[in-house]
Design brief:
- By secondary structure, the chain is α+β, with helices and mostly antiparallel strands.
- It has a single domain, classed as Haem-degrading domain (Beta-Lactamase), CATH 3.30.450.150.
- It has five helices and four strands.
- Strands 2-1-4-3 form a four-stranded antiparallel sheet.
- Helix 2 packs across helix 5.
- It is elongated and about 75 Å long.
Length: 161
C-alpha cells in the first residue's frame, strides 16, 4: 500500500507534463453579447428616429440567436423575416441581397434572398455572425443593419486580402 502512495506524485507529475505539452484548440474571436446588443440597440434607435417598426435578430457564426428585439407594432412576419435573414447572413457570410444574385434554387434551406441581412466580421476579416432586420423597405433594413454593425466597431464585408 505504501508503494502506491509513494509513486502517486510521480504519476501525477508525468500526467501533468503530458497535459501541458499537448496542443490546444486555436482560439478565435466569437460574437459576444455586448457587441450583439450594441448592434440591436443601434438598429432600434435608427428605426425609432425614422418612424419604423422593425425587428432585429443578431446571430453568431453558428446561426445561434444572440440578441433579438421586436418593436411594438412590428408585424409577426417581420420577426420571421429578420431571423431568416440573420440565419442566411451568418451561415453564408454574405449580405442577403448578394445571395439573391447567386440565383439559388427555391428549395435550399436558410437562404434568404431579400435584402436586409448582413454578415458580421471583425476588422481583420474573421466571420462572427449576421444580423437580419425587417419592417422597412429592403434598403431601410440594410441601412439599419449596417449602422448597427458599424456602431459596434465591426464590418459587414470581409476585407480584401
Amino acid at each position: 500500500m505504501k508503494a502506491i502512495f509513494r509513486s502517486t506524485p510521480w504519476i501525477a507529475a508525468g500526467l501533468l507534463a503530458l497535459a501541458t505539452t499537448a496542443t490546444a484548440q486555436t482560439a478565435r474571436p466569437a460574437l459576444d453579447y455586448a457587441s450583439a446588443a450594441k448592434i440591436r440597440e443601434t438598429c432600434l434607435d435608427w428605426a425609432t428616429k425614422n418612424g419604423k417598426k422593425m425587428t432585429v435578430a443578431v446571430m453568431d457564426s453558428h446561426g445561434m440567436l444572440v440578441a433579438y428585439a421586436h418593436m411594438d407594432g412590428a408585424s409577426y412576419q417581420a420577426g420571421e423575416m429578420a431571423r431568416w435573414k440573420a440565419t442566411a447572413a451568418s451561415r453564408f457570410g454574405k449580405a442577403t441581397g448578394d445571395l439573391a444574385k447567386l440565383n439559388p434554387a427555391s428549395n435550399v434551406p436558410n437562404v434568404a434572398t431579400i435584402a436586409g441581412g448582413v454578415a458580421i466580421y471583425t476588422p481583420s476579416g474573421i466571420a462572427l455572425g449576421g444580423v437580419g432586420v425587417s419592417g422597412g423597405r429592403p434598403d431601410e433594413d440594410v441601412a439599419c443593419a449596417t449602422g448597427g454593425v458599424t456602431a459596434a466597431g465591426l464590418k459587414t464585408d470581409k476585407p480584401a486580402p
